[in-house]
Specification:
Layout lengths: L1 H19 L15 E5 L8 E4 L14 E6 L5 E9 L8 E4 L2 E4 L3
Parallel strand pairs: 1-4
Antiparallel strand pairs: 1-2, 3-4, 5-6
Length: 107
């Protein structure tokens, strides 16, 4: 009986953790942490979210530049986003984007 009770409690805890997780939405870089960027995904009606800067082996876009943009959603809703990136954050400090992968900078 203890095993069943423990299993139910563990399941409830996991469900609560999954439901309570909210990605950190952003409208500008300052909405994110020091090692994050404001990232716009490629999905239709994507909502900008804070995402970690790239480290060794993470995907990146060579020569990626932050952009100010206006995103349009259904029913005439729009969102202005400043200093945001598309698809991938740039590499973190001390890393370089080579062949679309973050690698430690030399020297």
């Amino acid at each position: 009986m203890k095993g069943v009770t423990l299993c139910i409690l563990a399941s409830l805890f996991l469900v609560q953790a999954a439901v309570s997780y909210e990605p950190n939405e952003c409208k500008k870089k300052s909405d994110c942490g020091p090692n994050e960027c404001c990232l716009v995904g490629m999905e239709k009606y994507s909502i900008p979210q804070c995402s970690s800067m790239g480290k060794t082996g993470d995907w990146c876009r060579t020569n990626a530049v932050a952009e100010d943009r206006r995103l349009y959603y259904p029913n005439g809703i729009f969102r202005d986003v400043e200093n945001s990136y598309s698809l991938f954050c740039p590499c973190a400090k001390g890393y370089t984007c080579k062949r679309n992968k973050c690698q430690p900078s030399k020297g």
